[in-house]
Amino acid sequence: MQAAKIYLRAFEPDDYKKINAWRRDEDVYRLTGGNRFFVSSERDKQWVLEKILNNQTDIYLAICLEENDAMIGYVSLSDINYRNGRAEWSGVVIGEKDYRGQGYATQAIYLLLEYAFDELGLHRVSGSWLAENTVSIFVGKMMGFRQEGVLRDYVYKEGKRHDMIVMSMLRPEFDQLKQRYAAKTQPSTTPPQSAKP
Question: What is the pTM of this model?
Fold first, then answer.
């Protein structure tokens, strides 16, 4: 995993404009477990304000590029239960098409998990993925999420029923991911071999 080229920040009021445009993107809709809703920009404006003001049990963060501070997506945790040290992984959206498939989602997932485990002190993060979203499931497993089960026929969308794959990560598994991440982002301490004459 390369050093992060993105950072996370709290939502700002004007973020609703991009989020509302992303909701109309067929690729975003197709790979999420959510159903289709026709959402006005005014409703998304209120939704963003709600996420800004009520961030105790749900945390939504903008994914921004370091180079120019542009928001390219968002990531979230929901149903945070501090007493039991757990939360639901709500997903990651890379809304800007030009930045999909380049590792930004993976970096954002890591940064959010780091916040969940190291700042909030959680022990468990779990979530469910649409079974057809094989890329996201693969990424989740690669990062250390473990499959716990299948919710059969859990979602009805596009005229048919879909399974959801349930996965989770515990604190010790995040610690392993953190060690792997640190090893790949630290500069090498091995001196370069001298060139042959």
Answer: 0.83
